[in-house]
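Work Package 3 (structural annotation) set out to generate three-dimensional models for the target panel prioritized at the project kickoff. During this period the team completed the workflow that converts sequence records into discrete structure tokens, so that structures can be stored uniformly alongside our sequence database. As a representative example, we reproduce one entry of 563 residues exactly as it appears in the project archive.
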Amino acid sequence: MKNAKSVLAFAMAAAMAVTATGCGASGGSSTAAATGEAASADSTGASSSALNVMLETPVQSLDPQVATDGTSFEVIADFTDGLMQMDAAGAAVPACAESYEVSEDGKTYTFHIREDANWSNGDPVTANDFVFGWQRAVDPATASEYSYMLSDIGQVVNAADIIAGTKDVSELGVTAVDDKTLQVQLNVPVSYFLSLMYFPTFYPVNQEFYESCADTFATSPETVLSNGAFTLTSYEPAATAFTLEKNDSYYDADKVQLSGLNYQVIQDSQQALMSYQTGALDITLVNGEQVDQVKDDPAFDSRGAGYLWYISPNMGSVPELANENLRLAMTFALDRESICSDVLKDGSAATFTAVPPQFATGPDGSDFSADQTKYSDVCAYDPDKALSYYETAKQELGVDTFEFDMVVDSDDAPQKVAQVVKEQLETTLPGMTINLVIEPKKQRVEDMQNGNFELGLTRWGPDYADPMTYLSMWTTGNSNNYGLWSNADYDAIIESCTTGDLCTDPEGRWSAMYDAEKIVLDEAVIFPLYTQCNAEMISPNVTGIEFHPVALNRVYKNAVKAG
């Protein structure tokens, strides 16, 4: 997450004020807070129990079918419910869908939508809202980077053909049987299908409201409808502060104890910690030396966030990086343990697999990536091996020096990590120069997706609890296959695991996914670095925030802020 996953497929934009034209009001204020300060309580004291939350990066989009990053997903989920939502343990439980049935062959899902589910303009939430939202996701005109979630991942009938432009959106295998009954047809059984239903790409959109907004949809409180726990009250694209308030018409409003959410985008970690210490923030991330300062504070907590951070070499556009021995030299030159222990210090774990640990369990209940030495012959810190591969690469390429640009997010932690990566590569591999190119996240992602980079420090968070959320990225033509790598054997394995014989053979599928992962690491398609932990300071008077490594990292519906 983050961006996206054919099989399988989150810069700052220039701040701009958007005027809603001909779009029905959603009940929120049009004023955007862009000062970076938390909203104060109004004369009624309504925001006294509002939660003040720090974000590392700005929201990229509030359109559920367009958004691709974790920050955007979190905020969209604040004000939108899908068919299902996550409980505290991460299991899929009913949300807009009060109940559902699954056919005996596992290929037909019938969802029954709650009678008391309504949009913030008073319209009922209907089955057609889901049909329209899903059709938008696969419509080539939307150009959704997450369209693959319906085709490759969700296996919704005709999704792939619609995305390819060979069928009309009306042929998507999702039908409004009546206003409150939604039927979904799948090509093959998908064991994790219900967990996809809380992912924002599958969220509903009120068609009449959307069409009244024209091209301003999801750019302001007036162009957003809520059917969730909160409503948007201030926001503009690239805002450094924005707010939401409790949705009193939400069907589950009795469970929502917060009066609202006040978000602040603070990219400097020291500034964020100071804001927490002065009481302007209730929850903030900390990293590096800050962790040493606060780790004994009872308010400090560190928990897995699910993100795999890795370096992607552009093999398709940079001839030197197409050399496998050079790539292997670079991955062996990276001291991942020191990055985690000396730079991040937040509990992040050095990772030597293409699928990170602690988010996906197999048929026997074991963690897919528990064994971090499984591919140590091709992915480890070994300076001697790095030099050996380096010498071979230099001979094959006929050059002695290399210079690469590496694009890096403008956030604090990635810059610190990138600086150490630069030092490690240049020290272990004499004659190699790494130039850091610092970009806002949105620009960095666009550059990597467009192939306009040489090396990229990037991350991916799991969208659902299955290894395929990672492995699908490196199939030929996938929009997240930044390095433009292609391997027919790899593609065949992934196809077999998703639409072939193995999709109904859990044990065989699990084994085959290891075969696929081995190919990725054998060819150094990526250089895994670490699995992110979020080290956070959480005010002692705040409880009930739900943290998840999959899809939605933070959920506030059940959070409580004491007076």
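The first strand starts at residue 51 and ends at 55.
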